[in-house]
Automatic annotation (TrEMBL):
It comes from the Bacteria. InterPro entries: DUF2783. It comes from Pandoraea eparura. This is DUF2783 domain-containing protein.
Length: 69
């Protein structure tokens, strides 16, 4: 399965609001734990190892300010 980077969220603003709301009233450690759990749940949903590795590379490149790995 190839990594699809095209926008696919049908309601991106609602998703962003829910993501922010997930963090409401959490301290830093709880917020990081919630992010980690969300990442693992979504990784399990994707399932394909190569797709997940592509996503990891793209996420790291983005955090470093690179458009692509």
């Amino acid at each position: 399965m190839a990594l699809d980077t095209q926008p696919r969220l049908t309601r991106p603003d609602d998703f962003y609001e829910a993501l922010i709301d997930m963090h409401r009233d959490l301290d830093e450690a709880q917020s990081q734990a919630a992010n980690a759990q969300l990442i693992l749940l979504l990784a399990n949903q994707i399932g394909d190892h190569d797709t997940l590795l592509s996503a990891l590379r793209l996420a790291r490149a983005g955090a470093l300010g690179n458009a692509a790995p």
